[in-house]
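Subject: sequence -> structure tokens, single chain

Hey, anyone have a minute? Need the predicted structure for the following. Not urgent.
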Amino acid sequence: MDDENDCDSSSEAGYSNEIVSFSHITAVATGWMLDFMFVSLCQRFKEGKLDEFNETLKVFEAISQTSSTKGKPHEKTLICAFLARVMHGKELDVKFEEEESVMPLMSAANLWSSLGHTVADESLFKDITILLLVQSVAVCMEKGQRSSASSVLRWFEKHQEFPQNLRVKLSTIVTQKDIYHSFLVSFSFSRLLKTIQSYLDTYLETNPSDFLIKTATKFIQSSSDMESLEEVASQDGSLPQLPNDSTQKEKKTKRKLLSTKFSDLWEPDITKNPRVSVRRLSKAELSQMTSKKSSETSVVQMKRKPPQKWTPHLDKYLKEGVKRHGQGKWSRMLMDFDFEGRTGTMLKDRWRVLMKTREVC
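Reply:
Had a minute. Here:
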């Protein structure tokens, strides 16, 4: 009889193993980990801690690239990519898109247009859209790059639904070079961050992603209660405190089982004042990444900005600018001509090249 029970239990165990495969378990556990990293990323965004945000983003990217999560980008992945662009919104050297002229907030506006289904409040969606459009121009104005601000307006007219009254308003501000205009102050970068935080709070409330957080909280609370009981018992003398094997093990030096370094696919390319370390890739790794470029990585991949080439029409602008204002008046030339985001220093260096090649006197 016992043998029959043993056979039944063993057959049930085998049947259970067949129903619940390890791959299914892995997929569920990976989903929980992605949810945990997503909530952590939202928290880092709210705190405004860029370094911690980038570190968390590395872990999220590493988990999202596992075999159980590959495929069509999940909406949480798109939200994380959107947050990354906003976090680097004031760093014009950072590139997230293939097109060199697309700055972080411009790329964020593109992604935001595809996240409309995640926003229940239509007015909130419109507010963030307008804030992204305004700040894409305002950041260029703050950096003293008026020509870049004009380029942003032209780019949005081609690639984004740009309200006519907003376009006229921003064009006037760019022409007047008024970086302290009341309109820009009203639609400030800090307001953009606060509005996105409201969106995240609503999204997390509608889409709970805190299973691991709740489980870890309960574990910590129960562990704290046990430690308190042991401490009280030790002081009363009613229960002797016996050596705990797990406690002894915890006192030993902990060994890191996993490396904290991940790939740089989610890290921006910063040519000035870099804040994120970048690992150089070998030719073999670079070739492999290029050949196996997935749809998900194309949404969030960033690349190093190549050197900008001077074209004949830009040289013509430079010559006309020197003829009109004289050498050294590079900032005035930037106001008269669109040098496609170049600075006064770049104009000065190019003029020296033209003089050395005897193209100008």
